[in-house]
Write a structure and sequence with these properties.
The complex is a heterodimer of chains A (205) and B (610). With 205 residues, chain A is α+β, with helices and mostly antiparallel strands. Chain A has two helices and ten strands, in the order ααββββββββββ. In chain A, strands 2-3-4-8 form a four-stranded antiparallel β-sheet, with no helix packed on it. In chain A, a hairpin with a 2-residue loop joins strand 2 and strand 3. The longest helix of chain A has 34 residues. By secondary structure, chain B is mostly helical. Chain B folds into two domains: 328 residues, Cytochrome Bc1 Complex, Chain C (Up-down Bundle); 209 residues, no CATH class. Chain B is 61% helix and 2% strand. The longest helix of chain B has 44 residues. The radius of gyration of chain B is 35 Å and the shape is elongated. The chains are: A alpha+beta (205), B mainly alpha (610). The interface between A and B is large, with 42 and 54 residues.
Chain lengths: 205, 610
């Protein structure tokens, strides 16, 4: 192993050659090979921890959001017949990295009766920036039934979740959720979280 | 593109700096003997990269440190490998520093003008030991906790300042949250920065010394080598070899599964003694050496001698000037290395022969595996941490509690005699207690007075043993042995049903009729309720309550107080009262939770992975 450095050093074609009678072509090739091996070996050696580190650091991309839970929230009688929305917390087991929290509130929905046997559900998360919308009871004639209002950037939505303002900061209407009435009275909702800030409603994966 | 590079070069001087660094002449030819500084810089990069990502997953508190390491090890893709590379690369760093130091000593290259180069590497070695020590604790598993605690406790040996230093290191009077935050800060902040600083300092000192040497050699017409590419290629290949060694070590336990990478023991439990604690290999020699010094004399091997060693290391460059001094250096190094190796090997072989240690190790490994099962159960890790899972686990806590509190008298041995054996068996064998087999044996005239049941107790000649004998004698006289065997088996089934054992759940459901028949036999034909209470029949006060015999509640109650009138009353033989004061838990030997664990364990009631 002592040979390589002895023969190739000092390289004649480099600036400070002090043995100028070496054959330049051969030395050049040797020099190039050595440089290539040095760069490749060094890169491969460092790539190992780098790749493992990057794979581990990117692990959150593999984590799924807890969406798509089908939950019984209430019975029909609990919803006012005049269509006033009522807020229900979503209680479910929550996983936070290594910890599991049984039965914790993980979100909320507004439920509103739209008929004798029909119910509509909207997410409480504003599609604009993810703040919480609040139901405010109507005061004047125009919004007699009340509206949903987001205090962060003053977005307003009607009870069906439609934007009330043509220049609303929200890129889309409030997110509606699938509702199912079982056994005539049980209100089941498929709870989902959606990405905020997009014009399209995209469930979080 | 070129223009951009030229601009960057021009404004930053980057190219010039690189050239200055890479084109530098070497004093002598390029050589494998020069790889150590570069490999050290390399392992530092490895530690910085892997350490940074581990840091992103680490949560330094007593309830989350182990849990977050578990998450990295078992849930994060590539996490186990990341941890293993970090772990083994640290060990390899220490070895590289040792080789480098020894080489400098042997080749006398620590002499002028390279004294400071040598010193900087000595300091790197000390920092590396500090990094190993602080990093080890962060996993917060049984071994890292116990062995680090011992090492930090040594601070108390220092007269006057010891107690204060301990508090400063631990972040308070005991190990806890603040120990972790401190050790993390020391590990990723201070010590690693100082290590990097030492790498740079060594580099600058060596550059200066090399330059002087090169000038000298040029004057004498000696050989001048080049860093780029001749030395660079050797260095790069050396780094690659180091990485290969680290990978081989990291993958020695396989590429997947629970044992891949570096072992993670069960979470640390400050309240429980951990008998399998051993320091990392780098400290093993010192550990064994310290055993030669009793009591407070431990200050000599732990503090005095290491300090002297370091001081000596700082004098070595000057000693190396003379031939005598050089020989002294060589002898000293040989003795030190040989001593450490011999002591370490001795320590390992001693442990191999030590049955107590091996048993403790087996328990520790069992707990490490069990905690994984519990963590993966539907319950998952509660906010109070994974330790709670282990503390509430009858499968692992049962034997511990039984051994501590019950096994002075009771055996817990299966048919082959394996299990927990009493120091002096003087009470019934509780293996399979209240099961059909156990009760069938109890109701057998030939067995009730054997040591497995009442043989070694005051009840050997008691009313129960007498009654059972009488039944069988009468049956034999009437030639009805087969009948009594069947009837008493039915009684056992009915009685055992009250225990609602998990292992018999199916049989109990199937044998509803048999159980009803057995209940009738208990109250009518065999007249058990003349002395015992059984549901609505009989009274308490003369013999133990048979209602729910062997159920969780029944077991907890009899262990709590066997002298209660529900059980043996004042006829209680020698069984201690473990929880006499239900209203004042502090006065009791066993807590309600411990009673429950013992009962659950006796009943075989615990979570099993599907």
């Amino acid at each position: 192993m002592e040979n390589t450095p002895e023969k190739s050093s000092p390289a004649c074609c480099c600036s400070t050659g002090n043995s100028s009678e070496d054959i330049c072509g051969q030395e050049d090739r040797r020099g190039f090979l050595a440089k290539a091996v040095a760069v490749v070996a060094g890169t491969v050696a460092l790539a190992v921890p780098a790749v493992v580190g990057i794979v581990a650091a990117l692990n959150p991309l593999r984590q799924k959001s807890q969406s798509g839970l089908l939950l019984r929230l209430t019975s029909l009688d609990a919803l006012p017949e005049d269509g006033t929305p009522r807020k229900f917390p979503i209680i479910a087991d929550r996983t936070d990295a290594w910890n599991r929290f049984p039965n914790e509130p993980i979100g909320a929905v507004y439920l509103r009766r739209t008929g004798a046997k029909s119910v509509e559900a909207v997410q409480t998360v504003c599609p604009h920036a993810g703040c919480s919308v609040q139901f405010t009871a109507g005061s004047g004639e125009e919004d007699a039934g009340g509206k949903f209002f987001c205090p962060c950037h003053a977005a307003s939505f009607d009870l069906a979740g439609k934007r009330l303002d043509a220049t609303s900061p929200s890129p889309r209407d409030l997110d509606t959720l699938e509702v199912e009435i079982r056994n005539e009275t049980d209100v089941w909702v498929k709870f989902e979280d959606f990405q905020t800030g997009t014009a399209k409603k995209v469930a979080k994966a | 593109m070129n223009a951009l590079l030229r601009w960057i070069d021009d404004r930053s001087g980057l190219g010039e700096g690189l050239r200055k660094c890479s084109d530098r002449p070497l004093p002598g030819r390029a050589c494998w003997c020069r790889v150590w500084p570069c490999t050290l810089a390399f392992t530092f990069c490895v530690q910085a990269i892997t350490g940074f990502v581990m840091w992103m997953y680490f949560s330094p508190s007593a309830q989350t440190a182990w849990e977050s390491v578990y998450f990295l090890q078992h849930e994060v893709a590539g996490g186990w490998l990341l941890r293993a590379i970090h772990h083994y690369s640290a060990q390899v760093t220490l070895v590289l520093i040792a080789i480098y130091l020894v080489q400098m000593i042997v080749t006398r290259s620590l002499r002028a003008p390279r004294e400071m180069v040598f010193w900087s590497v000595v300091v790197m070695g000390l920092l590396c030991l500090g990094l190993l020590l602080t990093g080890d604790l962060l996993a917060w598993d049984q071994n890292s906790f116990a062995s680090t605690k011992v090492r930090v406790n040594f601070l108390n040996l220092l007269p006057g300042v010891g107690a204060g230093l301990f508090k400063l290191a631990a972040g308070g009077p005991a190990f806890g949250h603040l120990t972790l935050t401190r050790f993390l800060a020391l590990h990723v902040g201070l010590l690693s920065s100082l290590f990097l600083l030492m790498l740079i300092v060594r580099c600058m000192l060596a550059y200066r010394a090399d330059k002087a040497k090169v000038a000298e050699l040029t004057e004498q017409g000696g050989r001048i080598g080049r860093f780029w590419p001749n030395q660079a290629v050797i260095n790069a290949v050396a780094c690659l070899l180091v990485m290969v060694v680290v990978l081989l070590l990291a993958c020695q336990h396989g590429l997947s599964g629970d044992h891949a990478g570096v072992a993670l023991g069960a979470p640390a439990d400050p309240s429980v003694a951990f008998d399998a604690a051993r320091p990392e290999w780098a400290f093993l020699g010192l550990y064994e050496f310290s055993h030669l010094f009793p009591g407070t004399m431990a200050i000599v091997p732990i503090f005095v001698i290491p300090k002297l060693l370091v001081l000596f290391a700082f004098v070595m460059p000057f000693l190396a000037r003379s031939n005598v001094g050089h020989r002294l250096n060589l002898g000293f190094t040989a003795v030190l290395l040989l001593g450490l190796v011999v002591l370490s090997l001795y320590s390992v072989s001693k442990d191999k022969k030590d049955e107590g240690f091996q048993a403790a190790l087996a328990t520790a490994n069992g707990q490490a595996e069990r905690v994984l099962e519990l963590v993966r159960s539907p319950q998952g890790i509660p906010v109070s941490g994974a330790l709670t899972l282990l503390r509430n686990d009858p499968k692992t806590q049962g034997p511990v509690l039984f051994t501590a509190h019950c096994a002075a008298c009771h055996d817990f041995a299966d048919a082959e005699g394996k299990g927990i054996l009493a120091e002096k068996s003087s009470a019934p064998n509780l293996h399979g207690f209240a099961s059909r087999e156990w009760l069938t044996g109890f109701l057998n005239a030939e067995k009730i007075a054997t040591p497995a049941y009442f043989g070694n107790t005051a009840f050997k000649k008691g009313k129960m043993a007498g009654t059972v004998k009488q039944w069988w004698d009468d049956a034999e006289a009437d030639d009805m042995v087969d009948d009594i065997r069947e009837e008493l088996a039915t009684v056992a089934v009915a009685l055992s049903a009250g225990a609602e054992l998990k292992s018999q759940a199916e049989a109990d459901e199937k044998d509803a009729q048999l159980i009803a028949d057995g209940k009738d036999l208990i109250t009518d034909l065999y007249g058990c309720t003349d002395c015992h209470k059984f549901h609505d029949n009989g009274r308490l006060g003369e013999a133990p309550d048979l209602t729910g015999y062997g159920s969780r509640e029944w077991l907890m109650a009899i262990v709590a107080n066997p002298a209660h009138k529900r059980f043996y009353g004042d006829r209680n033989d020698r069984m201690p009262i473990y929880a006499e004061f239900p209203e004042e838990p502090a006065k009791n030997t066993l807590s309600n939770q411990e009673l429950g664990l013992i009962a659950d364990w006796l009943r075989g009631e615990w979570y099993e992975a599907p």
